[in-house]
Amino acid sequence: MILNRKKIIDESQKWLDIISSKKLSEHTRRQIVSETLDNFEGYYNKGFLEYRKSVTESDGFAAVEWNGSGSYFMDVLGRKYLDLLGGFGIYSAGIRHPKIVKAVRDQLKRMSLSSQELLDPLRGAAVMVIESKLLYALVDSFFGGNDVPYTKIEGKDFTPIEIKIARRVVLSAIDDYEKAWEPVYPLKVGYSRTEINPQFVAVVPPSDVVIATTFDVELEKVSGTIKIVISYAILEPIKSKLSVGFQSEQLEVDFIWINRIKEQIMGTSANVLVKLGEADISLRDIMELQAGDIIQLDTDATMPLDIQVEGIPKFKGIPGLLKGNRALKIVESLIDV
Hints:
By secondary structure, the protein is of the alpha+beta class. The protein is built from eleven helices and ten strands.
């Protein structure tokens, strides 16, 4: 059947009116059943309705689903059925689940269709592999341990907590990975899933070329590796940005790079600590301390105090006051000592 433009618009409007109608006449209901069967038989799946006669021949009219809620649905003629075919997509949560309906409605208010042309050209999958002993050490460290992994890792399964910690490590690494790529290309990396069994990790065919990068991570008592494997096809659209020109074999001093590092270092925050002195006090004396009591320290009041930067003595100074605040006057530098 060939329809012209006007008939197509009229046919579309007819079904839009039927869908938005709150009450249908008996004639309209039977017409919907008839046209649905004809369209299904003629254009969708020929011969299927005859094969499924037990479904279509119900009181002379096929059951055309029209409304439903939860585990039940009603056909267009108002007959009620128990839905025993759950599990198809959104119907796995039941018919017209309130949360799903709200999510679809909210999405339609924003945009009903997304265009692939707006997607990032770097599309594909990559793998981040965390060595087992390193993951166990990280979990131990996160929970206040001493970074010591299990003595026997072979055959041990990861617990849900360990998998969750691994996911946090990967998400943190993804953020740093994106920042590292910013000067070259605004890379956007999304977390997909965590896989424990290596047999199920297959992001590219065996014949494809991949780029593998290994990072050595050292903790206080253990070291391990984190590997990132990415398909060459992902980076191929921007390979011109990754190519470098001729580089001299001689070691040249890059003053621009030195100045940039110097600026970054000069803006780094450091903890400065001034130690007034120490005193040995018994627990009895501590329990008897009251407001107004004086604790005598082991330092001379006339001697300068040590000024520590990140725990290392770097200066000597004399305490005092400046504009109503406590201050310290530097009298000696220990940097060159």
